Each structure stands twice: as C-alpha cells, then as structure tokens.
C-alpha cells in the first residue's frame, strides 16, 4: 500500500440507499441516517451483531462488521462498458461514492461522510451468487465474474465494495463530501469480512 492518493476532484457521495427487508437491492433515498455502533437506520443490516442471513446461521453472536456497505460508482462505469446496467443501491450498497479508490483503503480508514457521520472501514464485501442472479434478471450472465479479478499471483480480487461500522452518527445524502482519513502505519490491506 502506497498511502493516500491525491485526487483532482473532490470525493463525494453519489447516492444513499436502504431497505428494511432482506432483499438484494436497496432503495435509493434522499437521506439516510447512520447510527453509531449500529449501522443505517431502518435498514435490514442494522445491529450490533451480524445481520446477514448466512452469518446469522453460522453464529448470530458475532459482531456486525458489515453495518454499512459502500461501492464506488466507478465500478458501475466499468460494468456499463461491459454491457451491464447497474444503478445505485442495486448491488445492495448503502452508500455509492465517486472520487475515492475504496478498494485501496487500509483496514481502519475513517470515512467522513457529510457534515457529521464517520464510518470505519472493516474489510471487503465478498461478492455472492446473488450478484449473478441480479445480472440474469437483465438477461446477462457474467456479472459475478465482472466484479471479481485475479492479481499477477492469481489471488482473488474482490471489487464489489467495502464494509464498515459507524463510529459517529449523522445524516448522509447525495452530494455530500467524502473524506478518507488513513489510520497510522503499518497499514493492513482489506480482506473479506
């Protein structure tokens, strides 16, 4: 990891989404409220302990390191070039960003969203078969493969966004500024959570 990257444009929140039911896609909202230690108010993944169904089945007492899901809008641009139409919230994210390489951030990075909210990055989202099912609804196979990659050593690269926990409550809306505050060294690369 080389450290913070300077951007010529300001990083922003492009869209915010939530859904109170356990569905794959989330509904775009004018504003969402992040609650410290819990996640997105009125979202199905809100909670101190894990809320993702497969993880609840494995161990419902494990901490919820996936309170907020963020995806960079640049991924949607790449997918569009491959023939996939994906909009904000459709891959299940709460916050769609632009201008920050989310996947390059280390564990513990603090994302300042809007005037008050702070989310601490915990790791990578592990893309699942539901992504492929979403693509098939558009009569297009290969969406899951499109959000995965391999590095030069053949290791899997997950590109479907990052996860975090809410440190400081606050409202977040489209157009809000996004600032990444890197943790002290040594930096730890993101792994799936």
TrEMBL record:
From which domain of life does this come? Bacteria
User: What sequence ranges are listed for the domain MOSC?
Assistant: 27-181
| A Pfam family | MOSC
**PANTHER family linked:** METAL-SULFUR CLUSTER BIOSYNTHESIS PROTEINS YUAD-RELATED, MOSC DOMAIN-CONTAINING PROTEIN
Q: Which protein, by its recorded name, is this?
A: MOSC domain-containing protein
Species name: Deinococcus rubellus
């Amino acid at each position: 990891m080389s450290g913070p990257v300077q951007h010529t444009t300001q990083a922003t929140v492009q869209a915010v989404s939530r859904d109170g039911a356990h569905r794959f896609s989330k509904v775009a909202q004018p504003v969402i409220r992040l609650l410290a230690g819990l996640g997105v108010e009125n979202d199905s993944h809100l909670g101190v302990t894990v809320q993702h169904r497969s993880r609840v089945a494995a161990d419902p007492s494990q901490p919820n390191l996936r309170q907020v899901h963020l995806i960079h809008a640049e991924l949607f641009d790449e997918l569009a070039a491959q023939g996939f139409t994906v909009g904000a919230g459709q891959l299940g994210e709460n916050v769609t960003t632009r201008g920050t390489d989310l996947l390059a951030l280390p564990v513990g990075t603090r994302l300042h969203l809007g005037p008050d909210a702070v989310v601490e990055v915990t790791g990578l989202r592990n893309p699942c078969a539901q992504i492929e099912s979403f693509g098939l609804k558009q009569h297009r196979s290969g969406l899951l493969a499109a959000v995965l990659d391999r590095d030069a050593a053949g290791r899997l690269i997950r590109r479907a966004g990052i996860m975090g926990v809410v440190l400081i409550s606050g409202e977040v809306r489209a157009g809000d500024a996004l600032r990444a505050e890197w943790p002290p060294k040594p930096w730890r690369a993101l792994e799936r959570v």
